[in-house]
Amino acid sequence: MGERSKKLNQLALTAREGKNPDITGLAIDSREVKEGYLFAALPGTRVHGGEFIQYALRMGAAAILTDAQGAEIAASELAASDAALVIAEDPRQALAYTAALWFGAQPETIVAVTGTNGKTSVSTFVRQIWTELGHPAINLGTTGVEGAWTAPLAHTTPDPITLHRCLAEAAEAGITHAAMEASSHGLEQRRLDGVRLTAAAFTNFTQDHLDYHKTFDAYFAAKAGLFRRVLPPDGTAVINLDDPKGNEMRAIAAARGQHILTVGRAGGDLCLLNQRFDATGQDLRFTLWGKTFQARLNLIGGFQAENVLLACGLAITSGDDPARVFETLPHLTTVRGRMQLAATRSNGAAVYVDYAHTPDAVATALRALRPHVMGRLIAIVGAGGDRDATKRPLMGQAAAENADVVYVTDDNPRSEDPAQIRAAVMEGAPEAYEVGDRAEAILRGIDALQPGDALLIAGKGHETGQIVGDQILPFDDVEQASIAVAALDGRVA
Length: 493
Ligand SMILES: CC(=O)N[C@H]1[C@@H](OP(=O)(O)OP(=O)(O)OC[C@H]2O[C@@H](n3ccc(=O)[nH]c3=O)[C@H](O)[C@@H]2O)O[C@H](CO)[C@@H](O)[C@@H]1O[C@H](C)C(=O)N[C@@H](C)C(=O)N[C@H](CCC(=O)O)C(=O)O
Ligand SMILES: Nc1ncnc2c1ncn2[C@@H]1O[C@H](COP(=O)(O)OP(=O)(O)OP(=O)(O)O)[C@@H](O)[C@H]1O
Ligand SMILES: N[C@H](CCC[C@H](N)C(=O)O)C(=O)O
Ligand SMILES: [Mg+2]
What we know:
With about 500 residues, the chain is an alpha/beta fold. It contains 18 helices and 22 strands.
């Protein structure tokens, strides 16, 4: 029996007596099962994975991990099979710990970031800081695996098999430091269980994902799971105190015996005293435990200072000298698709691409640009299909309140009627121009730019495709902005 199979057995997943499978791999999807695999048949939102046990057994599964319902669904097939059956009360949790044991290795230092907005930004900045300080590092999340090696990921927080495979590959490749995003779906579905976290950060809490979590309380509880359950008692919680939910999250972390490092403008261990903006970024003055520091940040957006200080908090709590951490700040670079200067018109007007896809993010991104704009601020906004529908009018409203001109366009309609999504966004922005075709909206927004104006193209950030029905059509806001500027100004942007 292989070493990994022994570990699985040690886990004593109540394996069926007398059956001793020689496990060769793990799968969460029956279509990926190969001879000797353990298939995790999980309860889903559309269907119970138990429906696929029969297929998995046919493909050679040697063990099935499921719950009582899954076992009942496939009772007759399981009775006729030699495969070990593991019935767990929470099979997602059991799978996550099984994957952690199976893949084994993890980077020594792993930190996670949760919050409605800013996860990708903070985890990317932590990785950039670590890299500057000479640590082999990656970040993993919405933009995939980035840093010392890169790979695409389907989810912000991957399923536990993908996640633990990725962490093991990273550790085996010599990566010592990893910063990851903890999405609320990922926390709720226990995708992070078994990850040996040393610290975690909380950015902020505003509306998103109510389609999945149903209520704000349930959404918050999912995020709090990072500090209540996943981060161990001797870890460090880095908390943004400026968010109205910051104190509640701090109390949750403290009750679990975690060390606390607070970040904020109004106070905190790491306290932002002053920001002075200019055309290419900002100069910061801040204190750490009462001692004052200054640093240059070549990043647009007041909120990026909060993200950067949270990242500093994570780096410091992971053992790096604070003064050295702060010395890296002038070297931090724009996170792909976050307040990214995509093009400049020949009249000097700037075009930014940003991933704002929540009401708070749309407001924050537009407010962040205001100090940099002499003329009008123009916004292009849309909302994704098959996602929280209640945020759509609020996103429109956030655009209408914070921009001078608004274009409402399509984001990723997915299975929904794009016209209906646009209508919902327009409820909050009745004066907006409605231009369904995203490329045309970008062209029109850029055409409207006068000297001193700026345009924010919100919603898709780094994405390189537009999801329409079952298809992913190539689409890249940065590229479209360049094409539009070239067409209008007769030159390459
Ligand atoms: C709502 C949600 O998170 N769904 C995830 C969930 O799917 P589900 O529960 O609906 O699964 P299902 O379709 O009912 O199927 C049940 C089970 O049967 C299995 N199955 C299904 C078909 C088959 O032929 N064989 C088979 O074994 C499935 O793998 C699944 O385990 O479990 C699947 C397997 O792990 C995920 O792929 C799927 O992510 C879907 C695609 C998704 O879009 N998730 C998004 C919303 C998401 O997770 N986003 C977060 C947040 C991003 C943010 O912060 O903004 C992220 O971390 O990316
Ligand atoms: N600290 C912040 N406060 C408010 N808004 C922010 C903050 N940081 C980023 N944003 C806004 O949110 C957008 C998404 O940022 P980012 O990708 O870092 O968030 P995320 O939490 O990873 O999002 P996702 O849930 O899609 O993974 C940015 O493009 C910006 O508009
Ligand atoms: N991680 C986010 C991404 C949203 C991006 C936006 N372009 C959209 O499609 O809604 C989500 O799955 O809700
Ligand atoms: Mg993200």
